From TrEMBL:
This is Putative glycosyltransferase. Keywords: Transferase. Signal peptide: none annotated. Residues 2-154 form the Glycosyltransferase 2-like domain. PANTHER family: GLYCOSYLTRANSFERASE, GLYCOSYLTRANSFERASE 2-LIKE DOMAIN-CONTAINING PROTEIN. One of its GO terms (molecular function) is transferase activity.
Amino acid sequence: MSVVIPVYNEEDCITECLDAVVAQTRLIDEVIVVDNNSTDGTMAIVNTYADKLPLVVLNEPEQGLLYSRTTGLNAAQGDILARFDADTRLSETWCETVIRYMEDNPDLDAMTGPTLFYDIPGSKRQERKVRELLPKLADVPPEKDTWPISGNHMILRKGAWEAVKPYLLNDPLLHEDLDINCAADKAGLTMWYCHTVYVWVSARRYRSPLKELKHYIQTTYDTIEAHGLAERAEWYKGQMPAVYKNFRFRWLIQNNYNPETGHFVPFFLNRNKKTRVSPV
């Protein structure tokens, strides 16, 4: 298995991301970190893992997640490829569970699983619940024909990556992970949602300005429409008001919450709030 982690100025979260990779119960064969012109201490941190992981460091000068993702996936040597973001933290048994699913289901092309937030109110309680439920979830069959698979937790066979390439739009103004999903649809690939393959991610997107969140939702529609998936695009268009309402609610919570202290703080007093540059 190869994992690909595109990075751009991720010094605040890359340590926890790579620590979770080190802690896997089954060693990951290749860990590819693609630097996309970071100007902070990200790569200095990454390089300290050279003796802890089978680390490959690549540089992608073309700015954009689309380009760094593609560079990493094209370079990956494993039969199973995983791509996730620098704020993703794998559960300890993630790798062995993924490999077991792939080995037991040779017709499975791509998969994902639960993506949980680690920096929201109640996240510790949520983590305890997940660990309690995990034995029961092992008996829950995967959801087949799932859609979409997000870029913060995407797993696919190397052959599946090659199969989607002819259908990719590779437009930096669209969502690059949704582009893969739409291309996978056209290529006729099978995608599953597996309940025991879970990761933790940051809710940092919801700390972005509301204008950016609205643009993010619109870009989702634009990506589906650009692929000519009219029925799916029309369905999502009908969902957009509800999606925006959900995003706005999460924005309100995250901008008045300090995950470092675990306390609510009025946004105008929350000095630890950092603005993230969105890939789209």
